[in-house]
Amino acid sequence: MQPKSPLSLFCLSSFLAFSSISFLLFANLTASDPQSQFLDIGCSLYNVTSRAAFFNNINATFAEIRSKLNSTARFATADRARASNPLYVLFQCRGYLSTSDCLACFTVAAVHIRNCSAANGARISYDGCFLRYESNNFYGETTALGNFGRCGNGTASKVVGFNQTADKLLRDLTVATPRINGYFGAARREGAGGAVVYGVAQCVETASETGCGDCLRVAYGNIQRCPPDGNGRGVDAGCFLRYSDKEFFSLNQTVDIERFLTGKSSKRKKAIIGGAVGGAAAILLFLVLLLLLRHSKKTKKKPQKGDILGATELRGPVNFRYKDLKIATKNFSQENKLGGGGFGDVYKGVLRNGKIVAVKKLVLSQSTTAKEDFESEAKLISNVHHRNVIRLLGCCSRGTELLLVYEFMANSSLDKLLFGERRGTLSWKQRFDIIIGMARGIAYLHDEFHSRIIHRDIKSSNILLDDDLQPKIADFGLARLLPEDKSHLSTRFAGTLGYTAPEYAIHGQLTEKVDTYSYGVVVLEIVSGEKSNEPMREPEKQYLLEWAWNLYEKDALMELVDENLDPKEYTTDEIKKVIEIALMCTQSSVASRPTMSEVVVLLLSKGQVVIEPTRPTFVDATTKVDGEVFTLDV
Length: 634
Description:
Blueprint: H1 12-18, H2 29-32, E1 38-43, H3 51-68, E2 75-80, E3 87-93, H4 99-112, E4 121-126, E5 129-134, E6 148-151, H5 162-176, E7 184-190, E8 196-203, H6 209-223, E9 231-235, E10 239-244, H7 265-298, E11 318-319, H8 322-328, E12 337-341, E13 344-350, E14 356-362, H9 368-381, E15 392-398, E16 401-407, H10 414-419, H11 428-448, E17 463-465, E18 471-473, H12 502-507, H13 513-528, H14 544-553, H15 572-585, H16 596-604, E19 622-625, E20 628-631
Parallel strand pairs: 11-15
Antiparallel strand pairs: 1-4, 2-3, 3-5, 4-5, 6-9, 7-8, 8-10, 9-10, 12-13, 13-14, 14-16, 15-16, 17-18, 19-20
Helix pairs in contact: 5-6, 11-13, 11-16, 13-15
């Protein structure tokens, strides 16, 4: 009879063999930081007695796990306890992952843990999820041999006060998380010198409070040495602890850990004090509300006006004063004009506090409904907060003038660097970081924001670049405001020739896969340095997508690569992989296109793409469908 496999039975040779499946070197974590970042794998030294029975159990339990993961579940177990080869499986995602990201992480984990072959126990860890199976019930186990800590190679961007801030946050998370329902805590802490630290702690839901605390203390001990490194991870059998000087979860997912830091012994005392004070507080609150109600009847409520000196803080939809924006943009002068598009012109503005902003003057119909839609959309998009999505600071409505105020991007838009005077200046690493950042930003709009936003007009000119050349998705949420006479098609369509999915451009069929298609086209532009909506290959006069597909069929994809790129910066395999993923995004079949969360996983997985893309539909300026000719504006 084979011995069962405790987690202490890890094989070094297995780890070395399987470390090749890691999706990105750990030193690169701070650059892209995806949820599928591989951390560790361990396989039991012992094999199962019946391989056929074992693999049947693996398939059945993995399918059960997948079925249990839904819009709320981030944790699931499944077992075949009475089978001839018993099997227990546990899977957990980090609490900040979206449903699609969680499923995508499970898909990756379920594939790669099979590299342990017939081992009767294995576990695999990623930034975003953890998967483990054993031949015995391990659900209550939290800490075991094989736990480890991993520190990043880069020093924090703001060293002053960083060590103390990071250490305090980790210690607080270690104490608070076992007391939080669900054993998940995410927090942001700002310290002296402007140092900002983001941290997450999590235990498996089958752990006890004591077991969770024990596990996190071990994890803390493993990464306590990491600061001043900008990031670190502690991983054990039943918990995960992580910090970073860069945001890796949405701020609306933070937990107020302060109220979980006090000991249990203080609860009774707090209850007594609360009972004594509660009555007086209720009476006082009633009196205050009564006074406010009487005051509101006497005075008319005025709309919120933006404080031009403090308007750069995220406070929701701040109403700027028109005269302040007029002064900031030098009366919307040509010298301050940054560009224009279907939604209106954009101007550079300098606020009185010296903050530089971008002011967009919208071209909308002048109906009352249009103004109401404007206010509604501004309220929605002002709450969007992601490092790869442009931030709306506020808005302004004055008569027929409707303006949006955004953060300013020093490096303008992606098309300027790909096709303008600075053409050829982007290295392959910079281009790949842009490709990843775009995918993460669009995935956020689709799956992680509380209201799904379909952009409809993803293109290189709508990808802005900050000081570090990190991409920011712009003009999201504006398509529904576009007047019919300004659309690019006779129907209500918001898109651009060369970027827009054919089912949307021709039939008006709108899903999030429309953005997936456009993203794929932009990726081809980034790789090739060619514009998608201009024929560029004589004598065929092919558009970019058609050219890329023809090269794919000829197995000559490297001909697509921008000649300005240094061949020493990339490998043939990684270039081909990126192009193949772009072609997957542009397939004719909407269902065949991956979600944007899946795109992130594909881009950062090691090795080539397994799924072969199918042929796209090529849309030119004039496209004939069902005997009818559709003409699109360029």
